[in-house]
């Protein structure tokens, strides 16, 4: 059964949501900056290592896929930047809805990280390793195991981040929106 919340409870909820949301937004922005810088460094590193893999077409294909994956990461993260500011006269409800939409986008990014982040880099690493190993099955097997373990770890950590960090803030924000809508209806 839903009950109306008092104005002091609404104010407390607003303060909690603002504090948690602001910290989470700073954290996501920092993550995006680090990931973009890492993607640029990856491309630079593979350009510098050209003499090591240039004789293997499979390794070149792997590096191309890694570089395309890095470009995709930069594109996705740049596309999902901070929410647009609202006009000055916007209500707390409008502001909250705007932030909820942005947060839902961030959750969607982390839930799909296997496709836009992990898959291109992992497949590229596997091709690069195959091209460099030149038929040395044990070497390739160890490198493949490591690449797949790191890929699985990245996916698991991102799912954990959704459950542990983003979803609780999203739930608080949705509760705030519902409380604000209820308060608006009473007026």
List the helices and strands and how they pair.
Blueprint: H1 7-48, H2 50-53, H3 57-79, H4 92-111, H5 113-133, H6 137-186
Helix pairs in contact: 1-3, 1-6, 3-5, 4-6, 5-6
Specify the overall morphology: elongated
Helix and strand content put the structural class at mainly alpha
Q: Name the helix and strand elements from N-terminus to C-terminus, one letter apiece.
A: HHHHHH
Continuous helix count: 6
Tally of strands: 0
**How many domains in all?**
1
Tell me the β content.
under 5%
Terminus-to-terminus distance: 21 Å
Poorly predicted runs are none
- The whole-angstrom Rg is 22 Å
Main beta sheet: none
Which percent range fits the helix content?
over 70%
Average of per-residue pLDDT values: 88
Walkthrough of the structure:
By secondary structure, this protein is mainly α. The protein has one domain (7-182). It is 86% helix and 0% strand. It contains 6 helices and no strands. Helix 5 runs antiparallel to helix 6. The mean pLDDT is 88.
Quick synopsis:
With 187 residues, the protein is mainly α. The protein has helices at residues 7-48, 50-53, 57-79, 92-111, 113-133, 137-186. Helix 1 packs antiparallel against helix 6 (137-186).
């Amino acid at each position: 059964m839903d009950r109306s919340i008092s104005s002091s409870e609404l104010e407390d909820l607003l303060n909690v949501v603002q504090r948690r949301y602001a910290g989470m937004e700073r954290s996501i922005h920092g993550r995006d900056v680090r990931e973009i810088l890492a993607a640029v460094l990856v491309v630079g590193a593979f350009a510098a290592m050209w003499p090591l893999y240039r004789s293997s077409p499979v390794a070149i294909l792997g590096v191309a896929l890694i570089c395309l994956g890095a470009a995709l990461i930069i594109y996705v993260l740049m596309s999902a930047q901070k929410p647009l500011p609202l006009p000055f006269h916007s209500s707390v409800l409008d502001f909250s809805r705007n932030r909820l939409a942005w947060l839902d986008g961030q959750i969607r990014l982390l839930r799909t990280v296997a496709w836009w982040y992990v898959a291109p880099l992992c497949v590229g690493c596997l091709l690069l390793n195959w091209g460099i190993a030149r038929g040395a099955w044990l070497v390739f097997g160890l490198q493949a195991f490591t690449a797949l373990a790191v890929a699985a770890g990245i996916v698991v950590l991102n799912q954990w981040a959704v459950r542990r960090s983003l979803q609780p803030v999203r739930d608080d924000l949705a509760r705030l929106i519902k409380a604000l809508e209820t308060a608006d209806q009473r007026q």
